[in-house]
Amino acid sequence: MDELKVFNGNANPSLARAVTEYLKIPLGKCEVFQFSNENIFVRILENVRSRDTFVIQPISSPVNNNLVELLIMIDALKRASAGRITAVVPYYGYGRTDKKDQPRVPITARLIADMLTVAGANRLLTVDLHAEQIQGFFNIPVDELTALNILSNYFKQKKLNDLVVVATDIGISKKARDLANKLNTPLAIMEKRRIGNKDQIETLNVIGEVEGRIALTVDDEIDTAGSLVNTVTILIERGAREVYACCTHAVFSGQAIQRIAASPVKEVVVTDTIPLNGDKKIDKITVLPIASLLGEAINRIHTGQSVGALFE
Question: Are 87 and 129 a contacting pair, CB within 8 Å?
Answer without folding.
Answer: no
